[in-house]
Amino acid sequence: MSNIRHSPRARTRLLPLAAGAEVDAHRHDEHQIVYAGRGVLSVTTDTGSWIAPATRAIWIPAGTVHEHRAYGATDLHLVGLPVPDNPLRLDRPAVIEVAPLLRELIIEYTRRPETEATAAPTAERLRLRAVLLDQLRHSPQRPVHVPAAKDPRLADVCALLRDDPADRRTLAQLGSVAGVGERTLTRLFRSELGMSFPQWRTQLRLHHALRLLAEGAPVTVVAQRCGWASSSAFIDVFRRAFGHTPGTHRAQR
Q1: What sign does the CA torsion over 82, 87, 88, 89 have?
Q2: Beta bridge partner(s), residue 80
Q3: How far apart are CA 190 and CA 187, in angstroms?
Q4: pTM above 0.85, yes or no
Q5: Nearest to 108 by CA among 43, 8, 18, 35
Q6: Which of 22, 113, 161, 169 has the most CB atoms in a 10 Å sphere around its CB?
């Protein structure tokens, strides 16, 4: 990530983004909650990518260099928090669950223009912020995180699947293309990415599926292009990951 922009404050605001719009690499001296009330948003750092539909938000700690990309027309709600306000007590990016109350709090808190928000806060706004922080403290993590590999051997294998998430080759078959053994790759997935190869591939496929759904692809097409054996298998994995079906997800957009 070159030409990194530094914005001392993480502004609280609503930012509409067109489908495919990107926000270049930047960092803030404050923490930030990023929530897509409409559409799907991905956040990328040098350690991987996170993606969030309307039932999830992304926590970005102060100082983290990151980029945004919108899939489908996206309403991006940004909540800036001073460093002492760290309700999640996390120093790394994370995806958290957004319950209905938290969703409404974020939307309401970001509804006002930045100039109004930076004026002396009203008692109403202070109460709203306090409840928002309380809800964040109790929000469980629900990651759709695709960590990035640094070991060149592992990175080569991951690149094959990033280029084609529907690739159904085994780890041994992928390793033979990259010139590295299955046992070595299994160890690298665990030690470097913190998950097994099947877990990483599922995260990658879910990441890709959310993008395709946001772009309007039918469920059957998404299942095929992401490598699931059938639409029912895709729906089952999607429901277990997000608590609702792909069809419900599309309706929530």
Answers
A1: positive
A2: 32
A3: 5
A4: no
A5: 35
A6: 161
